[in-house]
Write a structure and sequence with these properties.
The protein is about 45% helix and about 20% strand. The chain has about 350 residues and is α+β, with helices and mostly antiparallel strands. It folds into three domains: about 1-155, Winged helix-like DNA-binding domain superfamily/Winged helix DNA-binding domain (Arc Repressor Mutant, subunit A), CATH 1.10.10; about 155-255, Arc Repressor Mutant, subunit A, CATH 1.10.10; about 280-340, no CATH class. Strands 2-6-5 form a three-stranded antiparallel sheet. Strands 8-10-9 form a three-stranded antiparallel sheet. Strand 5 and strand 6 (about 125-130) form a beta hairpin. Helix 4 crosses helix 6, helix 9 (about 160-170) packs across helix 11 and helix 13 crosses helix 14.
Length: about 350
């Protein structure tokens, strides 16, 4: 395990904060039941993996996560981030297997991670993906979708995230097999959607309720987000019964995201709890204010920095430890003195 951790992948080793994930279609179409925050955290981790999956360990800070996904850096977000790390360790994924000689498919269950932990002292999240899951995915290495992490950050509900990633996994069908240019679709029955999204049996038992809360509302959220995909829904009937729900997807231009203040607290458990997206001017101002604190209290900063640097695990590259130590020291200065402008 130590050898695996020594081959750790970080934003520092990449030289840049990841902006997109090449996600296997088998992942996008799998059955799993993540909260919205845990889903985004897993996407961030996958974005740090090498394409050949030669190393399965990643590490990043809360600040890295906020920069990649696009969320403001706040205390409530920090708490939810830590809870999501724990959720990732406890979660499983059901992946559809290739068809056998008779054309029948099955499902295989894997844990997402062998290790998923957060060090409050260093601010570093360390995650190692499950080896068996990686070996299984290598069979599908040419079947993946490019998903922008910031697009995921624009979505609030777990069902919107699942529909969006499933839609992306079928995007290669645009303009093919009778589809119009830049258009494609996919469909599932209600029992299939319930299984794939992890909707409890006792929830939304009426078809009308299920369509409203699990399909229609999340689709409206995706369309409002302006993240390059618009979806319309269509009921596929067999006689008087609803056989399946078809989601007609169309590629559209991205809209510029403009911050309009914090959103109201989520009203349902299906919505993400993280705050509204932040724009670059706010991030730049915060960075300047923290740098000003470092200039005002250089000796105190140096002491905090050395303490935090000594806490870093030996398996983390030195450059990455220095970034994490600096960030932690600056946040402690802010807690002690507030922001001095």
């Amino acid at each position: 395990m130590q050898d695996e951790l020594s081959q750790i992948n970080t934003p520092e080793s990449l030289g840049v904060t990841p902006r997109f994930v090449l996600q296997h279609n088998a992942i996008s179409r799998s059955a799993h039941n993540f909260s919205a925050t845990a889903k985004k955290l897993t996407a961030m981790a996958m974005a740090l993996l090498p394409p050949d999956l030669s190393s399965l360990s990643v590490a990043f800070t809360f600040m890295d996560f906020c920069d990649a996904i696009g969320y403001e850096k706040g205390g409530e977000s920090y708490r939810i981030f830590k809870d999501a790390v724990k959720e990732c360790m406890e979660s499983v994924i059901h992946v559809e297997t290739p068809p056998n000689k008779k054309g029948k498919k099955g499902w295989v269950m894997h844990h997402w991670f062998q290790i998923a932990k957060f060090n409050s002292n260093t601010g570093i999240c360390t995650m190692t993906f499950d080896q068996e899951l990686a070996e299984f995915l290598k069979e599908f290495k040419w079947f993946y979708s490019k998903i922008n992490l910031n697009d995921l950050g624009c979505l609030q509900s777990r069902y919107a995230l699942r529909i969006f990633e499933m839609g992306k996994s079928y995007e290669s069908l645009a303009g093919k097999d009778g589809n119009e240019k830049d258009a494609w679709y996919f469909e599932r029955s209600i029992p299939e959607f319930r299984y794939l999204f992890g909707v409890p049996d006792e929830a939304y038992q009426e078809t009308k309720q299920f369509r409203h809360f699990v399909i229609e509302n999340p689709v409206k959220e995706i369309n409002r987000a302006g993240i390059g995909m618009e979806i319309t829904t269509e009921g596929i009937k067999q006689g008087r019964n609803l056989k399946a729900i078809r989601l007609n997807c169309k590629k559209t231009p991205h809209k510029t995201q403009v911050k309009r203040g914090r959103k109201k607290k989520a009203e349902t458990a299906d919505q993400i709890e993280l705050p509204e997206l932040s724009n670059k001017p706010d991030d730049s101002r915060q960075e300047k204010e923290l740098e000003h604190l470092k200039e005002l209290y250089p000796v105190e900063f140096a002491e905090l920095y050395q303490v935090e640097l000594a806490k870093g695990p030996a398996s983390i590259p030195d450059g990455f430890k220095q970034i994490a130590a600096e960030g932690s020291a600056l946040m402690q200065l802010k807690e002690r003195h507030g922001i001095v402008k």
